[in-house]
Amino acid sequence: MLRLTDVRKGFPVRSTGEELWAVDGVSFEVERGEILGIVGESGCGKSTTAKLIVRLEDATSGSIHLDGNELVGVPDRDLGWLRRTAQLVFQDPYASLNPRLRVGAAIAEVLRVHERTRKGQEERDRVNELLGLVGLSADFAGRYPHELSGGQRQRVGIARALAVEPELLVLDEPLSALDVSVQAEIVNLLKRLRTELGLTYVFISHDLGMVRHLCDRIAVMYLGQIVEIGPWSQVADAALHPYTQALHTAVPIPDPELEAGRDARPVPGELPDPANPPPGCRFHTRCPLAEDVCRRDDPPLVRLGTDHDVACHVVAREHGVRTDGSTDPDGPSQPSDPSDRAEHP
Amino acid sequence: MSDIAQASGAPVGAVPSRRPRLTRLWRTKSGLAGTIIVGVAIILAVLAALGLTPYGPTAQDPTVRFQSPTAAYPLGTDQFGRDVLSRIMSGLVSSLLVAVSSVAIAATIGTLFGLIAGFFGEWVDRTIMRINDVFFAFPAILLALAIVSALGSGWRNTALAIGIVFIPLFVRVARGPVLALREVDYIQAARVLGFSRTRILLRHLLPNLGSAVIVQVALALSWAIITESSLSFLGLGTQPPMPSLGLMVSEGRNLVGQGAWLLVVPSVAIVIVVVGLNLLGDGLRDVLDPKDDR
Amino acid sequence: MTGEQPTVDAAVPAEPDPDALLSVRGLRITVPSGAAAVEDVSFDVHPGETLGVVGESGCGKTLTMLSVMRLLPPGTAIAGGSILLGGEDVAPMPEKQLRRLRGSKVAMIYQDPMTSLNPLMRIGDQIAEGLRAHGWSRSDARDKAIEVLGEVGIPKPQRAARAFPHEFSGGMRQRAVIACALVLDPELLIADEPTTALDPTIQQQVIDLVVQLQRDRGMAVVWVTHDLGIVARLVSRMLVMYAGRVAEAGPTREVFRRPSHPYTSGLLGALPSPGAGREDLIQMPGAPPQPGQHPAGCPFQPRCPQAIERCATDLPPLLDRGRDQGAACWVPPEDWSA
Ligand SMILES: Nc1ncnc2c1ncn2[C@@H]1O[C@H](COP(=O)(O)OP(=O)(O)OP(=O)(O)O)[C@@H](O)[C@H]1O
Ligand SMILES: Nc1ncnc2c1ncn2[C@@H]1O[C@H](COP(=O)(O)OP(=O)(O)OP(=O)(O)O)[C@@H](O)[C@H]1O
Ligand code: SF4
Ligand code: SF4
Ligand SMILES: [Mg+2]
Ligand SMILES: [Mg+2]
What we know:
heterotrimer; A: 345 residues; alpha/beta; Rossmann fold; globular; C: 338 residues; 8-stranded mixed beta sheet; 4-stranded antiparallel beta sheet; 29% helix; binds adenosine-5'-triphosphate; binds iron/sulfur cluster; binds magnesium ion
């Protein structure tokens, strides 16, 4: 349904005049009805990817196909269909609603612009139906955003996005401004909406636990690139890339017994400046496995299992795959059995 | 769908409404003082406009020339025996008329251009702001003088001239918040939802400029009154016999020897109105501060 | 169904603990409206111990900790209770005496590493400032500042001391903030969500640093957070706050294994469990009450799945649940419905 091919997006850096590649050669596909999770630390290009998909920003190069239609380079006025197909849910539920519009009016406005209903009773019914869909009672239509809690606002944001009857929802950190109990509400809501409405999600988060809980496939980004992508059970429970593994150990598990048994040594070093990424593998400045080749060559994403791709010289070699794409004749054969991979640290 | 009832929990935060704003304005010292002064000025002007002055503003009475303030003539009389209070009241009418019309022109056009510049950015912004800067570089009075000389005097042309001169003020006032708001999530959300630019501009951006523009209107009114008085003083604004505060100062200057009040009263009247409008502007700024605009 | 609890022991003794480094009893803090944002909060921190304080946004964690420093924001005030720090009550203490305690006895680090540093002052000078205020000479203070910068893991401390905060990344700034807090060797460090603004790998570095420093110096730490993972990773005892009160207190392992307050149990259920299946998360309906709008009886009652009749009228005190655990709840976990 959604396919990104070698997408790049650069922003000019004012002080140096150079280009900052916020998204640097990203490719992935999302099937209809699937939830793809994107995780990564701040500045790795998650939000920029989201904005490219809904065309708040236009990619510098590469191509983005949604339902077979190209998005890159298409002028704004020809994107009416996109607005009806893909919607974005924002991180900050306090900033994504116009403070001067009542909830009902904000949703009705979308219905009107897209001529989804006739004015009057039909419109009011649809507004109430949408509110019900996200678990809010009809009397919320008369409230202003400041009269709502964070979780309620996030529900309104989702209801408004659903008003255009989209097929794809891009959710940019929809949970990070919310308390844990509210996060649970919203995640359950998202799960239910997917089954009820047959939606497809791109779910962006820095919370590995939530991504593992919700997503079918997970992509891990580091400095504008995808370093690992695969089925949730693989990426969350049997990660191969050193950065994904570092991210796993970095996130504390809410269980004292499990925590006591973990080696929680942090990876050293700072996140490099995205305007000036390290040459070769971008993670080599912090990677415990780094070798000479890492400092020289940028590792491509190579397939190491069913639908499981990793961009790392060392891990690929251990799986008998050369990072130039060919299979190493001397190494062990490419594993296909999941248990085989799970053993790997 | 058991979570319907669950999510309809208590609302969070207090409910601000329109009325408490005004009450808050009167709770600030400057807001209260400003409201009273401007209110009195408006009442006097309205009375004058309805013909309810103590004497006819142009009615001459040779028996009472150069009377200093008395019970019958609280602000004295002038060289033709006309009542100064009545003339001040009518002067207020023309001053306020010119000020309000000119500021209305400036605020409408200026806000519109500021909105467009801020929203579209790029070359549109650069062009508008370049022109704006050129206008800004001239002192307001000089520019107004030049325009009035070109158009001819009279209150309509004066209002037009002052209006044009004040446009850049409003362009700046409107453009700043638009630049900031453009990146705010709910404006971005409106774009993703497929709203047209006109809709975003008029329905989502314009209402948020309200407070900034209102404050600027109060301040611009006070400058407009000064400018109008200055132009009238120079004989280029309102024309006699229509009374005008600036004109009265100009006449009073030549008659200081016969009656100091003829200079003092209109000058003080101008200062009071201008100070009142400034106080009101300050008060409004405190109350409408977008910080607590949630 | 339980009716009356037969005999109840309060989980925290009424008298302050003489062995504790920090012993808070019956703390009440009011906000400008006069309502209490923190009420009847009691807890102890022993030398060298780590106490985790958790709870949702607005439940009074920050106000409680600021009152220990006696740095409450204007309008809010301590309206009752005692705060014994090393045996001295700081609640009525005059400002001059407080200044002596701050930094040397107890220090605090905040959530936002940018606003807790002065942007116009060199890092080294900011660290040295605390020492100078306690009578150190200029050159001694400078040397000590550089030493501490090295200790918190900042590379090239000589050069870093001359840098301004904006030249540092978020993680480095938080290290500098920690250096400022540690320079006077406090016995107690209060950390109010110091890693919330940081990325996971950087957060982990900062946590690791605090654990190491604590081990080396034998310092006690109070770690405020709403991340139950952090609590599981680094604290031995924890305090769960709800609506300005202590809902549950106890050893971390016990509280996680056997939560004895429905709120704690709700918080834990709301988290996706690692390594397990992906069944729906358990939702907690509603939102915490604002100060001044607390219901009569138990503040958690409107949201509580276990509530009994009594909960609507009687406020439960912190009751002993055994194994050093206490919960402010009338219904013991054995009697909970599933
Ligand atoms: N409009 C812009 N102009 C210049 N640089 C930008 C712009 N938007 C993003 N960037 C830069 O691009 C990089 C990626 O930003 P992005 O917002 O996509 O990161 P992110 O992964 O969403 O991070 P976070 O977790 O902080 O939201 C960052 O270094 C950011 O500074
Ligand atoms: N200066 C203040 N004036 C008025 N009310 C305040 C003030 N500071 C805090 N409060 C109120 O007191 C309550 C407790 O606030 P506090 O900051 O201690 O919460 P918290 O538990 O630290 O929350 P968070 O997790 O969001 O930091 C909140 O309801 C808050 O609205
Ligand atoms: S390519 Fe090298 S540096 Fe990069 S992640 Fe793999 S081992 Fe580490
Ligand atoms: S006292 Fe009652 S309402 Fe409060 S937590 Fe316990 S069971 Fe729930
Ligand atoms: Mg982002
Ligand atoms: Mg806090």
